[in-house]
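Hi R.,

Here's the chain you asked about this morning:
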Amino acid sequence: NYATAIVFAMFVGSLMGTIWLTLPGINASIVGLKKLGIAMSISWVSTGLFGFASPIIGVALKKDGPISPTQYQPASIFVGLCYFMAGVTLVIARGWIISRNKYVVESLESEDDVLHITVSPKETISNL
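And the predicted structure, written out as tokens:
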């Protein structure tokens, strides 16, 4: 019904609005300030491409047939899995950043160009 759609829109809208605030900080901590412009450009292009393709995927996942309460169930499951995997990706990125920052502090390198530092998957997992 309409009230449920409004509540859903408020929750999703408040969560999706955080991308504009968090993405620059995450990009800066991953690639450094020297390459932030390039990283932001790639991030916005990839976000736009996925945003363009997602309605097509959602319509393709819709069940055919008469109108029923479960016709959008596959699309809802797909979206839920996408949110879950995005969360897992952020947790892994957090572990990687923590591990990488230990190397930066130990070697007293500049944080301007930190992409050349390699971190093993074992260290990343240990910092989750």
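The chain has one domain: 2-126.

Let me know if you need anything else.
M.
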